[in-house]
Amino acid sequence: MPKIKTNKSISKRFRITKNGKVLRGQNFNRHLSVRKSSKHKRALSGTVVTKETFAKKIRKALGIKKPSALKKLLKRS
Known about the structure:
Elements: H1 8-13, E1 14-16, E2 22-25, H2 38-44, E3 47-49, H3 52-62, H4 67-76
Antiparallel strand pairs: 1-2, 2-3
């Protein structure tokens, strides 16, 4: 059976932490920044954790299983 290819567009947009959380960049910071306050622009500069419903789909597209599930399997054997 062939290997599953990684979705490259997703791998460039998201990062996976050691605990399996999916990080993404903030929205609304590409243009129209003149009318946004400095406080608002600073708040948009960081990364945020993706909701778990979307994170499952992203992990599946990247071919990554959640590390906590792997730890449980290793403890049993």
